[in-house]
Amino acid sequence: MSLDELTEDITDEYSALDDEFTVSLDRETKNELAMLSAAFETDDPEELIRRGVHLLYRQTVDSGDLDFHLRSGYDVTYDEYLSGMTFDEMTGGDNLPSLDDSNRYRM
Which of 34, 62, 73, 80 gets the most CB atoms within 10 Å of its CB? Predict the structure, then answer.
């Protein structure tokens, strides 16, 4: 997989998400959402769900979990995705000659 494939997959996933969709809640999740709604005094549980997605996203970025999964699936990191180029492309490493016998000592 590559950076281009990751960008394409993100675009496809974004298009597949509707602005509104139904999520079924198990008993534990429903209880936790009710507790958070009461604690934050909100009448809009959707706002708490949005905050939860933001929190999970930030946590996976900060802990390196997102990079781990992106590297495993697409062979890129989050920073490479944000910059639009791989580390090798940034440093020019993809333009170095191969180190076969005729090019071994030429740079």
Answer: 80
Provide the number of structural domains found in the chain.
1
pLDDT tens digits for range 11-66: 999 988 887 778 899 999 999 999 999 999 988 888 999 999 999 999 999 999 99
CB 40 within 8 A of CB 50: no
Indicate if the pLDDT at residue 96 is higher than 70: no
Spatial CA neighbour of 89 closest among 68, 100, 75: 75
CA dist 96 to 3, 84, 85, 88, 89, Å? 20, 20, 17, 10, 11
